[in-house]
Please model this.
Amino acid sequence: MPDKPERMTVREFMTLAQEGQFDVLEFQRIFNRDVMWVRHLIDSFRRKIPINSLLLWEPASGASPAAGRYRDRSEAKWWIVDGQQRCAGTLAAFGALPGWMPADRWAACGGDRLGVMLTTNRRGEVVIAEGRHRGPQVSLADLLVASEQKALPEALAKAGFPMTDASALEFDHFLADVLNAQLLLEWLPDDIDDPFLAFKRHNSRATQLSLKQEELELSLLASCFGPLLRNYIDPALDEAAAQHLGKAFTRRRLNNALQLMLPSDQRKLNAVRADAETVEDAAKRVRQVCPVVIRYLHEHGLVHDEVISAPGVVDILMALFDRVPHASADLFPMRWIAHIAAGNLFFGRPSTARDTLNVVLNGGSYEQIQAGIAALVPPGRPAPYTEERLHPTPKQKTSFGTNGTLFSMTSAHPVGTMRDLAVDDLWHPSPRMRLRPLCEEHIAGLMSHYTFMTDTTFEIIASHGGWTYAAAEELKPDDDALAAHCLLLPPRQLQPKDVADWLQENRTPLLAQRIEAFLDDVGPLRDDPEPTSSAPWGPGR
Model:
């Protein structure tokens, strides 16, 4: 093979990639593709549909980067500047681990679940199997192994296909078409001093279309401080996902926090002016504050994404706890979150979130920040929490909205301390307890149909058709547990088909009372005598 080939086959690329000849530069975004995209990629190879060329770099002697995107050491010969998604997707289709990525990171990216399966259509032609296909299937990975071992008929028979030479030949041709597909290669000069700039200019239009704004901004910063994504952003996102808050802590949210920790003249696309030490300092602060915010949310009942109705509070908590670390031991932020949820103050009001963030960033002392935040919410405590508020809005089809936020916070507060109905020593807030339905015909987002419970409790209740007398008899909750869950003992004659209506009628008033008691205890953030007409209480519309 020439020193710098202009093209190589898929087979050649896979061999070299698994031998560690390739790596990915640190500024690249994380691998993020789904199985449909990978199927289309393989189909393009099969049909000889050209895909964009890969942009590679073979650094001059002694100039090779010491670390890659996913590992802090690298001995790669060639570096992928543009085309990581296609390269990793090709390997994923064959169930192969990219040589540049640790197995745990590959699994976290979902790469180990992107293998392509093949089947045959009614005409006996080999095709890529869709997700719902129920007939015989064989993976590209198994097909490749069987082909190398000259055991295709046996492998196909094991997968349920007819063991005929003709069938084996069809699969062999499909595999050969994919493996022999040509990848076009372009090369950077070996002495180039700014591969990131080359990447942008190589394909600026495609970059703007395929990279989200936050990905481009993070890539810019990573070109200044290489370990940013690998050692700071990725671990923070992993931790949030492990703590069931992966949707609240997104790459975009972490980028927002990071940008605000940089000098104003080094933010966004001006990051080309940033120096490594400044970016490293901001990265460390983001990495330190994320677990603090997660812990605070958990302590106050918000242990799952599904009960965080206003993820924008995460931006403000990150900025607040970064600026005023001792605020994470204070109840003021919890009371503020309760006010935001009770008044639905972030819904349709982006300026409220922006103004609150500005107060945190520009305030002097913690007391001044508190006063500034309080000035942005209506005076007094929220209006009485009525039963009508507990009915889901049309936009709450798969979310619990503010009702879920407030019930979660109430259940972690002394006015509503809740333990699991089956596991006596497990109390909310616990990630093991999630909002699960109490009836078979539950309505998504309707709080009277849900309570916090473990898998064990849910299985018991579901086995009895919902919160029936038989379920209560097996669980034997005491009066305190029933009160905490806002539950009544169901009548003996209650049938599973009637549980949903019975819960809505009998549990809704109890939920409203319990949330109302919590809000009463939270109290006002400020006591101005006259409420402002520009920011009325109640759900945003």
